[in-house]
């Protein structure tokens, strides 16, 4: 039979640090949370822009509770 030896990532010249499965899940959760937060911010910006288009002052639109923005 052939003598096959796996090369480590360092031997292959790859850069970076090994990430365990648990660390990967934590990172995915952080990314998901960040994406959710960005979506919330964008939704507020769009609602604010629509209120500003209706003649509501920008500062008032930014402070308007989400219940008044149709959420």
TrEMBL record:
Keywords: ATP-binding, Biotin biosynthesis, Ligase, Magnesium, Nucleotide-binding. GO terms for biological process: biotin biosynthetic process. The keyword Transcription regulation does not apply. InterPro entries: BioW. One of its GO terms (molecular function) is 6-carboxyhexanoate-CoA ligase activity. Pfam families: BioW. The keyword Magnesium applies. Its cofactor is Mg(2+). Residues 1-21 are annotated as: Disordered. Homodimer. This is Uncharacterized protein.
């Amino acid at each position: 039979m052939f003598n096959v030896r796996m090369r480590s990532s360092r031997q292959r010249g790859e850069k970076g640090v090994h990430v365990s499965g648990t660390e990967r899940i934590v990172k995915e959760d952080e990314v998901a949370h960040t994406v959710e937060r960005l979506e919330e911010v964008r939704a507020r910006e769009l609602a604010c822009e629509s209120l500003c288009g209706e003649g509501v002052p920008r500062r008032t639109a930014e402070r308007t509770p989400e219940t008044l923005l149709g959420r």
